[in-house]
Amino acid sequence: MMLVAALPVLEAVAKGKSAAAKAAVENRCGWFVNPSPANAWLIDRDGEWIIATQGGEQAEGDWPPPIAEKQWVSYGGGSYGHGCACMRVLTDRKTMQVKRIVSSAGKTLAQCRRDPKLAEPRD
């Protein structure tokens, strides 16, 4: 009887998959920073999560749009800058990389500014 229960685990291991459950989607909120083309990260209470690096890895999924133009701090008058966002993501905790963005939403700047654990990025 015990052997029958272990078969799915053995099959997963044989296929090179972890016996652990699928990676869990995490909800992360903080500063979404996009300072230049193809570079982006999210700074939350746990640190700085890399979303994209120019010429490097890019997370799958859509980046969060600001909820309004006044909720985006522009760098040098262009479209690059930072805002506040919440994202449902799959991550690699060892490398602090976002692998996939399941969903994302812009939030008010005030939401991030109220959090004492989040320092606002500088341009």
UniProtKB/TrEMBL annotation:
Superkingdom assignment: Bacteria
Organism lineage string: Bacteria, Pseudomonadati, Pseudomonadota, Gammaproteobacteria, Lysobacterales
Protein name: DUF4087 domain-containing protein
Organism: Lysobacter gummosus
